[in-house]
Amino acid sequence: MAKTILVLMAGASLTSWYLIVTKSMSGAQARRRSEEFLKFFWNAPSIEVVGRELDGKTPDNAFAHLAQQGIVAAQHHERHGAHRLNEAGTPTEFITRALRRTIDEETSEMESGLTVLASIGATAPFVGLLGTVWGIYHALLAISRSGSGTLDKVAGPVGEALIMTAIGLAVAIPAVLGYNFIVRSNRITLARLDGFAHDLFTFLVTGAKVGSTEPPALPRRARATQDA
Questions:
Q1: Phi-psi region at 2: left, alpha or beta (left = phi > 0; alpha = psi -120 to 50)
Q2: CB 9 within 8 A of CB 127
Q3: 85: part of which helix (H) or strand (E)?
Q4: Dist. CA 167–CA 154, nearest whole Å
Q5: Sign of CA dihedral 187, 188, 190, 195
Q6: CB 205 within 8 A of CB 92
Q7: What is the pLDDT of residue 153?
Q8: What pLDDT was estimated at residue 223?
Q9: What is the model's pTM?
Q10: Number of other CB atoms surrounding residue 163 within 10 Å
């Protein structure tokens, strides 16, 4: 039983560290690529240039994926209209659904593996405690069979059993810290992605970049009133 628990704890530790390292590295790489894409996007002369750059390519970050799907949705509805149920509605509704669907896909991708990490962080201490209880139980049985209850006979087996609790904590603590770090990073990325989706939607619908629009010209009658 104790060996089985040790194997489980070792597997849980390896799994949690694998998830922490791989998701941290992929997250850092995705953030770097996102910054490069956003710099290209907002400095592009037109949305057509962005569409041509993304056409036929597999996006390597969430922002490029969102922009690609939004541009494709806008172009598709403009050229072909609504011929199927999933294309029903106005162009703005069609674009909104495409953007929302893409954000949901990116959210699922970011959250993959986090359930395993959270489960390891929540259950590892209790698995270690189970190993401790099991070890103490068998240590006491061995002591009772030997008939010797001196301190040197008790301390060794009980101390070995208590190590299981320490192992459980050693597995759980990195898993919990890694989970919290990754979740926080994902929340920041998704907040930025949501803001970019609003900007992209405005740009696709109105054709004007957010923050670069000029105030509308006054009507002729209003100008005459101000001049008077």
A1: alpha
A2: yes
A3: none
A4: 21
A5: positive
A6: yes
A7: 63
A8: 43
A9: 0.76
A10: 15
Exposed/middle/buried for residue 206 (C-beta within 10 Å: 0-12, 13-18, 19+):
exposed
Of 19, 197, 202, the closest CA to residue 105 belongs to 197
Of the candidates 87, 78, 86, the one whose C-alpha atom is nearest the C-alpha of residue 51 is 78
The encoded tokens of residue 105 equal: 């896909």
| Cβ(69)–Cβ(99) below 8 Å | yes
Shortest CA distance to 199 belongs to which of 66, 77, 35? 66
Residue with tokens 């560290």: 17
The two tokens of residue 84 are: 């199927």
Phi-psi domain of 112 (left: phi exceeds 0; alpha: psi -120 through 50; beta: other) = beta
d(CA 46, CA 62): 20
Residue 185 falls in which region: left (phi positive, over 0), alpha (psi -120 to 50) or beta: alpha
DSSP 215: P
Per-residue pLDDT of the chain in tens (228 residues, 90 and over written 9): 778 888 899 999 999 999 999 999 999 999 999 999 999 998 888 888 888 888 888 888 999 999 999 988 888 766 655 555 455 557 788 889 999 999 999 999 999 999 999 999 999 999 988 888 888 887 777 777 776 656 666 666 677 778 888 999 999 999 999 999 999 999 999 999 999 999 899 888 876 655 443 433 434 444 444 444
